[in-house]
Amino acid sequence: MATTIETPAARPGPAPASSPSRPRKRNAGPALSAFTWVLALVFFAPVAWMVMTSFKEENAAASNPPTFFFTPTLDQYKAVLSTDAAPYFLNSLIATGVSTLLVILLAIPASYALSIRPVKKTSDVLFFFISTKMLPVVAVIMPIYVISGQLRVLDNVWTLVVLYTAMNLPIAVWMMRSFFLEVPGEVLEAASMDGAGLLKTLRSVLIPMVTPGIAATALICVIFSWNEFFFALNLTAAQAATVPVFLMGTMTSEGLFLAKLSAASVLASLPVVLAGWLAQKQLVRGLSMGAVK
């Protein structure tokens, strides 16, 4: 006859102590947004003041204390447009457009070589590129002026093209190298297995993937070239002067000029602002490509 042995039921253990409630973190979103708006308005205030001054009369623009309520006028814009400003804008357009195109054409293969196919001295090459930006422009203007005079290329817009290309190329190489580093290696392996050569891989695979980065780099080169003043002032005279030189010409030693200078500055800023607005999405995406690994 089989006997059964009953095991005592397990007693429930003590209930686990409830973990102390953690204090909730305060939501810093609204405060951070408000601080960002205030900071943006502080940085935008000089631009807004320049635009407002361009619609004033000269007496109102130079008044102390400043005049906030006035009757807007377009006389300053008419005065700027009545001057011979077209050659200055044309020279800036040529120097900026051609130099930016050359920078992109040279920076793409250079950044590809320094990122996708690096060599042992890649870090030295990158340091050499960026070290050219550490030299003050004042230190090189005299030899550049002498060489340009001997070659008879002073007051020539193509001299500015060469200088702007050399000025922006190091920054473009550094930026585009970070964009090429974001390309997955599997994509290159797949292109190689499909029989794509170097040029085809670069043209059909890499460039379409880093197009936002190329757009961001090009826009930064445009801004630097369009706003460059030192070379344009010292190496040009009447034929190759650019927009920054034209702006300096609106300043006179006699009479008032602040409202006219503001109007000329607004007109000079419009091309770059328009280019940035058109490439806004590509710029934000391109600048964020190399930010997070």
Describe the protein's topology.
Layout lengths: L28 H25 L4 H4 L13 H8 L3 H30 L6 H10 L5 H14 L6 H25 L3 H9 L4 H12 L1 H17 L2 H6 L7 H7 L8 H21 L1 H10 L4
Strand/helix succession: HHHHHHHHHHHHHH
| Main beta-sheet annotation | none
What class do helices, strands and sheet pairing give? mainly alpha
How many DSSP helices?
Answer: 14
Separation, N- and C-terminal Cα atoms: 75 Å
Helix proportion: 55-70%
Q: Total strand count, please?
A: 0
Shape: globular
Let me know the average pLDDT.
82
Give start-end ranges of low-pLDDT stretches.
Answer: 1-8
CA gyration radius, whole angstroms:
30 Å
**Beta content:** under 5%
3D architecture notes:
The protein is an all-alpha fold and 293 residues long. The protein is 68% helix and 0% strand. It is built from 14 helices and no strands. Helix 4 runs parallel beside helix 7 and helix 7 packs antiparallel against helix 10.
Task: Give a brief outline of the structure.
The protein has 14 helices and no strands.
Task: Describe this protein with a few key phrases.
293 residues; 14 helices; single chain; mainly alpha; 0% strand
